[in-house]
Amino acid sequence: MRTKGVLILECMDKSDPGSEGRFLRHMFNLMEVDHQYVEVRTRYQLIALMKKSPYKVIHITTHGSVARRKKQSFKGLWFKDGIFGISETKELEGKLQKCSVVCTACMAGDNICASEFVRITKCDNYIAPSGSPRFHNSIFFAHILYHKHFIFGRGLSEVISEYDDTYKNPHGFALLSIEDFIDKTFRLASERLV
Prior knowledge:
Radius of gyration: 16 Å
CATH architecture: 3-Layer(aba) Sandwich
Number of helices: 7
CATH superfamily: Response regulator
Strand order of the largest sheet: 2-1-3-7-8-9
Number of domains: 1
CATH class: Alpha Beta
Helix content: 40-55%
Low-confidence stretches: none
Shape: globular
Structural class: alpha/beta
Mean pLDDT: 88
Order of helices and strands: EHEHEEEEHEHEHHEH
């Protein structure tokens, strides 16, 4: 059974301007929110920690790996041993039920990857940006999200909607829920029958 709190999983690069994960750890200490901070080095460490997380929220902070063509496309999450993409997600099949995942990596909210992540893991919610937020923007977003969620008791979808309306959501942070995925799948199947 998952408990209220956040597992913070961070993979930093030497060029990073600071640690989002350590900022979150300090913020949760001030808010008195149960949490655990882990500096992750490999994709396999990420998978193992996500599988056994005791918390209802997992926050992943790393870089997005992007293919640079005419239009940038998201390949996966960057780790020191390679990219965590859709094929690695299959190792989490059905393992994230009753859990929400927040990821602040650039372009991690890519429609295809986000939909596959929710479909495979069965997580309740997946929140990530479709754009490329800078370090301070990720921290600003996370502070608002968690303050309203843990202190004011608002649901994640409500907080995302408020963020969208109030701050104009410059990096496209969005929530995809398992219900959204099921509804979309059912709607597409219904359209094919007609």
